[in-house]
Specification:
Layout (H helix, E strand, L loop, with lengths): L1 H6 L3 H50 L4 H14 L10 E5 L9 E9 L5 H8 L7 E9 L3 E9 L15 H20 L9 E8 L38 E5 L2 E5 L13 H7 L1 E20 L5 E18 L61 H6 L31 E5 L3 H12 L9 H12 L16 E9 L54 H21 L3 E7 L6 H13 L2 E6 L5 E3 L1 E4 L4 H15 L4
Parallel strand pairs: 4-5, 4-11, 11-12, 12-15
Antiparallel strand pairs: 1-2, 2-3, 5-10, 6-7, 8-9, 13-14
């Protein structure tokens, strides 16, 4: 049949062929262009998805919108297999808030340039404009939370909570664990994000315990260079053959009396190690001597020879080891998150070491006398500062110092638990166990609790588990709870004598009777408007509360969300009302809740023991709103 068609030259075939060739070729052209446009559209969608994911990662690392758009374009072009993308129009839409999560939208539109369509456009009524297509991809940014639980562990937390038959500390444990469980469960909705919800725990009382495992950390003052490290030590009291001298900013043992220890540095850490107690005796060989080794029956020496010589010598054990508490840094570093640096010793953290106070009775006993003064001076301040005593062992029968006692006085809390991923069973168990281990004892130092809560969510040292502050899609949150005003005590208010003129018991601010270099007052008053000459409990509270307020404002300015809770405090008591007002001012504004006037509500709750569980559920709701999964 084809051979007959080919040979037929009649006009009907030619005309029919001429008429048919146009739609045949047009159909082929459309088929080619349709196949190609489908290929390019699929390629564009895949490339845009890849570019969207890359752009989201680029943005959350802290890059600008302009830089992210340029990065997305380059990534898109690299995945288009060499096709010309110069005519592609991009549109990048970022979340309205740089904190929390949100959706990044990347759009691309382009006109398809056909191979054949233009030759048949008029005939088919098609134009190149009709072949314009768009693609869009939406990428949820990382929506993560880093929450520091800054919880009061002072002695009053052992009281029963108002409206409840349980102790405040137990109510707090239950509510805190429920908060962790709620947020951990919600975090399971986002599978693709690493560590979506992390919690740290900062128990505070008179001080904060960072953990004894950090004794050798680079951010600790291991050389004793900080201006507050030796403020309670008078090294001029050491004898001439057993000196402690300053060389190059570090104190060293110097003199024949030190024996093999000569040349070793002296710090609070080494004094802990030097505190020894005699625990018994042991017989040791001390040499040989020429003596009678055989005797006649009547007592005369039959034979002389060399014989080993032995004697009983004491055995020693340690008296105390550093339990992990640190002092407040000197102003202004006590009020911010400045990273510790070896070239600025004031930024380093100094281990707490409570000095042995006078053992003389002078109208009452000193608050912390635990070592023999070993001096005949009648001066109580001299007896306290007499340093040779720390290098002489305590007598046999002396027990080791207990937790929070002796040189660890006022160190009563459990160590900090750094940020931990509670979406894993192991991580959740770690935080819950740490919460259960909390025990109430001691005074109340909220500003120091806030300071270390901030440090646990910070990306910089001492604790580096927090995400970089420049990352988008991440909220850093402090939840601060206390059941009382800030407290720092004079010895007399606790029934003790202050014969040495310390003006306070020893705690995280040291003795308030110690003036800072170049100043005529204690570091507690530095940077505050509190009276510089009023050494009373009330003025200490005023100074600490002012420091707390300053720290809260700095934390909020740094992007942290601060939630505060006052537990069983009454507005009818002036000191408690002052703390309520301070905690409310400390808190951040809610991003979601409004008052009757349309203003953002404060993230502050004044609650009772009986209402604490409900309060923490409200906190969970607020935190949930920060990371709603869309």
């Amino acid at each position: 049949m084809f051979r007959k068609f080919w040979k037929d030259t009649r006009g009907d075939y030619a005309i029919a062929t001429a008429i048919a060739i146009v739609p045949i070729l047009g159909g082929l052209a459309l088929a080619v262009d349709y196949t190609e446009i489908s290929r390019q559209r699929a390629l564009t969608l895949n490339a845009l998805d890849a570019a969207g994911i890359a752009a989201a990662r680029h943005y959350v690392q802290g890059n600008t919108e302009t830089a992210t758009l340029a990065y997305a374009k380059d990534f898109f072009a690299a995945n288009m297999n060499g096709l010309d993308t110069s005519g592609v129009k991009f549109d990048l839409i970022l979340p309205t808030s740089e904190t929390g999560g949100g959706v990044l939208t990347l759009k691309a539109s382009q006109n398809y340039k056909p191979y054949f369509l233009s030759a048949f456009a008029d005939l088919l009524g098609a134009t190149e404009e009709t072949l314009k297509f768009e693609a869009e991809t939406k990428i949820r940014l990382k929506n993560t939370l880093e929450v520091a639980l800054v919880l009061d562990n002072s002695g009053s937390m052992d009281y029963k909570g108002s409206g409840s038959g349980k102790k405040r500390i137990d109510l707090l444990k239950d509510a805190s664990k429920q908060l962790v469980t709620t947020l951990a469960g919600q975090a399971a909705q986002i599978k693709q994000v690493d560590k979506p919800v992390q919690f740290s725990l900062v128990p505070f009382a008179a001080s904060v315990n960072v953990g004894p495992q950090f004794a050798d950390a680079s951010w600790m003052d291991t050389d004793g260079r900080s201006p507050i490290h030796h403020e309670n030590f008078d090294w001029s009291t050491m004898p001439s053959n057993k000196k402690v001298q300053l060389t190059g900013g570090v104190y060293y043992k110097n003199g024949s009396g030190w024996g093999s220890e000569e040349g070793q540095k002296v710090t609070r850490f080494t004094i802990f190690n030097d505190l020894k107690r005699i625990t018994g005796t042991q017989t040791v060989k001390t040499g040989s001597e020429w003596t009678c080794v055989s005797y006649y029956w009547w007592g005369g020496c039959r034979e002389y020879g060399w014989k080993d010589k032995y004697e009983n010598v004491p055995t020693y054990s340690g008296y105390a080891s550093w339990q992990g508490c640190v002092e407040v840094r000197p102003y202004p570093y006590n009020l911010d998150d400045t990273a510790p640096a070896s070239n600025n010793p004031s930024t380093l953290y100094v281990p707490m070491f409570a000095p042995d106070e006078t053992d003389q009775y002078s109208g009452g006993y000193a608050s912390n006398s635990y070592w023999n003064d070993l001096t005949t001076t009648s001066s109580n301040s001299g007896r306290q500062k007499y340093m040779p005593k720390y290098f002489e062992p305590a007598g046999q029968g002396t027990s080791a110092s207990g937790s929070g006692q002796g040189p660890n006085s006022s160190c009563t809390t459990k160590p900090i638990t750094p940020l931990t991923d509670v979406t894993t069973s192991a991580g959740k168990t770690t935080i819950e166990n740490a919460i259960d281990a909390m025990a109430p004892l001691g005074a109340t130092n909220v500003p120091e609790g806030i300071a270390w809560g901030w440090k646990t969510v910070s990306h910089g040292a001492p604790f580096t588990e927090g995400r970089a502050e420049s990352e988008k899609g991440n909220d850093k949150v402090l939840i601060v709870l206390t059941d009382g005003a800030n407290t720092y005590y004079t010895p007399s208010s606790l029934g003790y004598s202050d014969a040495a003129g310390n003006k306070s018991t020893y705690s995280a601010y040291g003795y308030t009777g110690k003036n800072q270099p170049g100043e005529s007052y204690t570091r507690m008053f530095m940077g505050t408007s509190a009276s510089k000459s009023d050494y009373s409990n009330g003025n200490y509270t005023t100074a600490m509360t002012e420091q707390m307020n300053q720290m809260c404002e700095k934390a909020k300015s740094a992007g942290l969300i601060v939630m505060t809770v006052s537990l069983d405090l009454s507005t009818s008591k002036s000191d408690e009302k002052g703390q309520i007002d301070a905690l409310k001012a400390c808190s951040s504004d809610s991003r979601f809740r409004k008052d009757a006037n349309g203003n953002a509500e404060k993230l502050f709750w004044n609650t009772t023991g009986g209402e604490l569980e409900s309060t923490f559920k409200s906190i969970a709701d607020e935190l949930s709103n920060l990371r709603i999964v869309g």
